[in-house]
What does this fold into?
Amino acid sequence: MSATESRTDSGDAQVRVFLRPMANPLPLGFSALAGATLLVAGLQLGWLAPSEGSSVALILIAFVVPAQLTASVLGFLARDVVAGTGMGVLAGTWLSVGLVTLDSPPGSTSDALGLLLLLAATAMLVPAITSAAGKLVATAVLGTTALRFAVTGIFELTGSSSWEVVAGIVGIALCAIAIYAALAMSLEDAAGRTRLPTGRRNRGRDAFEGVPGAQVAGVEHEAGVRKQL
It folds into this structure.
């Protein structure tokens, strides 16, 4: 989004705002989330040996974090605070998980990481609650992510094998939800209409079914156009 200023014949200033179309970045972010939670769940449920922790950490850092960081930047550029905030929090959290796992002995836990995960769980509720007004599928993904971080944080703080199993099960459920959301939104973006239910309502539904002028109403008051955030 960019803006130019011109003046009318009477000397009054006019500002024109130019919007650039782009693809929905959420399928990229949700696909990366599915990969991250699946790999970590594999460690927690014993599908992967504890010695594989360093490999999981490297995959999180090399694949998951860049994908979600890209989705975050594109989300903000697309004027979607839910996508930008949610993907940004995810990128930072998975990077932290990867670095701590890489630096820790196999099978160990970390109180510091546990506290961070509890904070990340709380932070994920912000975009989850915000998206509930427009996109229910995104709310399901972000809300389940908050639960996943919360139970994993409790495991890191307590070292309890029971909480580890619960975290792994929630992680597998999150993987399935994230894959569905990525597929549904990809089909929706490619076809220009909903193929699989995405739970759009209110402004979320208007984004596909509303008149074009409604999508840019009030854009002069949005971040990037107004002088202060």
Notes: The chain is about 65% helix and 5% strand. The first strand starts at residue 2 and ends at 7.
